[in-house]
Amino acid sequence: MTDMKIGKIHIENCQIKSIDKALIVAKCLDTLEKEIGIRETEISFKDMFICPDINLTILTDSSDPMEKVLGRILIKMDKIKYGKRSNYKKYKTK
Description:
The protein is α/β, with parallel strands linked by helices. Helices cover 43% and strands 17% of the residues.
């Protein structure tokens, strides 16, 4: 068995203020993953502010793979933060 290393991209104490900013973050994550990732790359966020006015389904419904991934991560974070008050409580994340 080989010891497979997984690249990690972690963002902490930052904010995403608009859907335009979220799209830029997705593009940046895609570039980072391609440039410095090792096979699989784990992406994580901690203590983020995501503007509640952003419709995160715009990301999850995108044809761009990284936008979909970012949308799923942010929706999961929203559900953890707001619980039953989340706008995405019925939305399934993989």
